[in-house]
Specification:
With 255 residues, the protein is mainly α. Helix content is 76%, strand content 0%. The protein has seven helices and no strands. The protein is elongated, with a radius of gyration of 24 Å.
């Protein structure tokens, strides 16, 4: 009887340690996960989402041995939290790409101040539309399933208790930031080209008719043109963005 209780106690401690370590990595990533980790999502909902992801990921994760000593426990907790934050930042950069693309597009078509404070973060209306549409599309495409698979595969790259290489992590972070800005500018290209064509046309008209107030004539045109470009190009832009997001989830290090 006593031996059974001792065995049960050891098994319970191992399970609690396993779920606790997985929760540290999952919770850190969920706090930055697109759609589920937004600032508008209540903290209780985020906690519930993290617990659900932990229940899914923990049985598939490798078994973690209970370390000896307080220092080893603290080191393991710090390592798992850092890995989770790094993975979450990699995903959060895709949301930043949509926000940056919306800012570039809004500045190009003179819509940067309309509904600028509609969200928690002060982004223009075009950026707000892009972000909400992108997050909705990501969830429809099964972001929660891909995120769970992403977390399970992360243990192949970062085993329990193994601190990531600082040089590799910094190089990877810089490449993801560069990729984010590249993706943002690529998504905003239609608006930039439309703005360039508009300004060239406006300059030609101004040279031909200096007495005409071209700014008053052109302002409605560029506003309507920006809305038309958004209507025509947003599906293709979101398709490119979602493909990049899913590609990152399947292969975050590109190797």
């Amino acid at each position: 009887m006593i031996e059974g209780l001792i065995e049960f106690s050891a098994l319970s401690a191992a399970l609690i340690w396993q779920f606790g370590l997985v929760f540290l990595r999952v919770g850190a990533m969920v706090s930055l996960l697109p759609a589920f980790g937004e600032q508008t999502v209540p903290m209780r909902i985020k906690l519930a989402v993290a617990l659900v992801f932990t229940l899914i990921v923990a049985p598939a994760a490798p078994t973690a041995a209970i370390p000896d000593g307080t220092a080893a426990l603290a080191w393991a907790a710090l390592t798992e939290s850092l890995i989770g934050f790094a993975l979450g930042i990699g995903l959060r950069l895709f949301v930043f790409a949509l926000q940056t693309a919306g800012t570039i597009a809004a500045q190009s078509v003179s819509l940067s101040q309309i509904l600028g404070g509609a969200g928690i973060e002060p982004i223009p209306a075009l950026g707000y539309v892009m972000v909400i549409s992108g997050l909705a599309l990501a969830v429809i495409l099964g972001l929660h399933v891909r995120a769970a698979e992403f977390l399970i595969r992360s243990y192949d790259l970062f085993p329990f208790g193994q601190f990531p290489n600082a040089g590799m992590l910094s190089e990877w972070g810089l490449s993801q930031v560069a990729r984010s800005f590249t993706l943002a500018f690529m998504l905003a290209i239609p608006f930039v080209l439309g703005s360039m064509l508009y300004n060239i046309t406006l300059g030609v008209i101004n040279r031909a008719m200096p007495q005409l107030m071209v700014a008053f004539v052109g302002a409605p045109v560029i506003t309507l043109g920006g809305m038309l470009i958004l209507f025509l190009c947003l599906p293709f832009m979101l398709s490119v963005w979602s493909d990049a997001l899913l590609d990152f989830l399947s292969n975050p290090f590109g190797g």
